[in-house]
Specification:
The first copy, chain A, is mostly helical. Chain A contains seven helices and two strands, in the order H-H-H-E-E-H-H-H-H. Chain A binds a DNA duplex through helix 3.
DNA sequence: AAATAAAGTTAGGTATACCTAATAAAGATA
DNA sequence: TATCTTTATTAGGTATACCTAACTTTATTT
């Protein structure tokens, strides 16, 4: 089983891989704001659980299993960010809140949220729901 | 500072208080599916942090501070449940997922979610957004 | 190539939260 | 009231995840 934390590290590694093309323990530490020993420990754990391939002082490479999981986590993260932005949360809070929300949610909720976000995104311009929503918020402000 | 766990216990105590009129450590243990020693430990901690008043082998009473926090947590929980139900999650999953989602979310997200749920709930019947949404899901099913 | 700097690991320790087994207190019943 | 049952606590131990300080390995510079 994967813990919340393993998921966070996998996601961080995925993002670094994506951005820099390689992954250094130091960068993981910086991104997650933890100490380097903490990263060492988690790398060992992820390696033992076959999410990554790793040799001491060497590089980090995803296994198929790890890649699949990392992608899944990343998708879930983006889904939450998208939703949060739809309801008006700022980019920054959307990012940090998504990191917290994305764990331990039932598959049903993921599916529903996905469909809801899709539905909203695909609404025709003419529906104007967003304008209505903003108008609603404005009215509330004035009370 | 309160941890995620303290919040879970406070919420459980609040709900039991509400339902039975009094709170026994045993009931907390059952509701949260933890052992009774775990409950003893948390009761001690909550008491030390002035969220509840407690004496060994005695009853549990909220302080003002504890009451306020418990209410806040409960409201947040209900907000998530409401939202999850709007997007079509079953009552049961909505309840369990809300328990997980309700922690560590930024105030901005709470506000946005609240306003969004309010907005959706107050839409006139004539808006028919729900029908559109269901129709959208049905069409997807058929692909 | 040797010295220095940077990156990674190990050792040892903290905090949270959990558990089982054993013990103590309270409450119910014979 | 004494016994038995239920409930609560303490003792002792596990697992996760974190930290600092000390050490090792790798990489860079001179």
């Amino acid at each position: 089983m994967t813990t919340r934390n393993m998921e966070d590290y996998l996601e961080a590694i995925w993002n670094l891989q994506d951005k820099k093309g390689y992954v250094k323990a130091k960068d993981i530490a910086e991104r997650l704001e933890v100490s380097r020993p903490s990263v060492s420990g988690m790398i060992k754990k992820l390696s033992e659980n076959n999410y990554i391939l790793y040799e001491k002082y060497g590089g980090i490479v995803f296994t198929e299993k790890g890649k699949k999981l990392a992608q899944k986590i990343k998708k879930r993260h983006n889904l939450f960010v998208e939703f949060l932005k739809i309801i008006g949360v700022s980019e920054q809070n959307a990012q940090t809140d998504a990191c917290r929300l994305e764990h331990d949610v039932s598959p049903e909720t993921i599916t529903c949220l996905l469909e809801f976000v899709e539905f909203i995104s695909l609404l025709p311009e003419s529906s104007k729901w967003k304008e209505y929503f903003q108008e609603y918020l404005k009215k509330k402000d004035m009370l």
